[in-house]
Design a protein that fits this description.
- This protein has 4 helices and 2 strands, in the order ββαααα.
- By secondary structure, the chain is mainly α.
- It has a two-stranded antiparallel ribbon.
- β1 and β2 form a beta hairpin.
């Protein structure tokens, strides 16, 4: 069985055969944060367009991460969830 066939997919989230849903969600959050940071380092566009688009993409990835974090709210507990969600929200704000 191929790797893709061995996974159960829920939209963009793919569960590995030996992985719990909680671990898959954490992996998804990590992936979104990595994508967000990569967008800020992308130098392939003209300066003005690059900056506006990079900020937009950065915020979108963090919004996705926060949405996934909501699915872990019960597992994390209210205090941890609130702190992490605030950190994600604050990371997308410009000074």
């Amino acid at each position: 069985m191929s790797g893709a066939a061995a996974r159960k997919s829920f939209g963009a989230l793919a569960l590995r055969p030996d992985e719990s849903l909680q671990h898959a969600l954490v992996r998804s959050i990590q992936s979104e944060i990595e994508k967000a940071l990569a967008r800020l380092g992308d130098d392939s566009r003209p300066r003005g367009r690059r900056t506006a688009q990079a900020v937009h993409e950065f915020r979108k990835h963090f919004k996705n991460a926060r949405g996934t974090l909501q699915l872990l709210r019960n597992a994390l507990g209210a205090d941890v969830y609130r702190e992490e969600s605030s950190c994600f929200r604050d990371a997308t704000r410009l000074p």
